[in-house]
Every structure is written in C-alpha cells, then in structure tokens.
Amino acid sequence: MITTFSERLPDTKSAKYRGYTFTRCVGSACRCDAKVVYDAKGKGKRSEYAVSEFPCDFAGRAFRLEKVGGESYEVLVADRQREDICDCPGFVRYGKCKHQELMREIVANNLLPSPLSYEGSDYSNAEIE
C-alpha cells in the first residue's frame, strides 16, 4: 500500500512556490517509513529524502532524513514548535529550516502514524537510555 500526499507550503522571503510530495512506504521492500520530495520552484531546487522515524526520550518525535546521494539530518519535532531541532547547517545558523518545517507539516497532517500505534514494530520493544 502506498499513500501519496502533496501540499504547497507558505512562501518565504527566500523561496516562493514551495511544496512537497509525501509517499508513505509500507512493506518489507522499503527500508524507510516514507519518501519526501521538497520542491522550491522559485529557486529551482528539488531535494528527495528517505524518512525514518526512531525512538526518542523527549516529548516529541524524531526522524532521520537521508538525502538521495548525499547527507542525512536528524530532526526533532517537539510537542512545542519552539523546541524543534535539526542538525543541518541552516537550523544551526537561523533556528529554522526546511527539514524541520517539512516534518512538522507531515506530523500535523497525520501522514505518519504515531510510533505508539505501530503494532509489532521495534518501537514497542525500544529501550530508551
């Protein structure tokens, strides 16, 4: 089963006509939870990420975004937005980034179920140190 969802994001000063396409991966053929394509048409930039959720010990959800053919970033979507974190250079410099914004939108739209709802998954047996 594959679920696809597309949405336009609000324009920013530096990027107009931004949007993303989310595809949920289900089954053993896919090693990630989802794939996300971020498209900033005004800048001509398109980035594709494999998204994997991993357990965390704080009030929120943690995701690893692996860019196709490149780097990976870890994003914390906290229960309170001002506590979100991403380890990309943009977030470190500006306190916000497209990775954090994408994952917050995906969580807000309930595109990835909460790890608590994964039956028989590794989350049910995860140990948090």
- Helical stretch tally: 2
Reading the helices and strands in chain order gives EEEEEEEHH
* Overall 3D form: globular
What gap, in angstroms, lies between the N and C termini? 34 Å
Number of strands: 7
Mean pLDDT metric: 78
Largest sheet: 7 strands, antiparallel
Number of structural units classed as domains? 1
Helix share, percent: 10-25%
Question: What class, by secondary structure content?
Answer: mainly beta
| Physical arrangement of strands within the biggest beta sheet | 1-2-3-4-5-6-7
Low-confidence sequence ranges: 117-129
Strand fraction band? Answer: 35-45%
Rounded to an integer in angstroms, the radius of gyration calculated over CA atoms is 15 Å
Account of the protein in words:
With 129 residues, the protein is mainly β. The chain has one domain (3-111). It contains two helices and seven strands, in the order βββββββαα. The radius of gyration is 15 Å and the shape is globular.
Question: What is the element layout, followed by pairings?
Answer:
Elements: E1 3-8, E2 18-24, E3 34-40, E4 45-54, E5 60-67, E6 72-78, E7 85-86, H1 89-94, H2 98-108
Antiparallel strand pairs: 1-2, 2-3, 3-4, 4-5, 5-6, 6-7
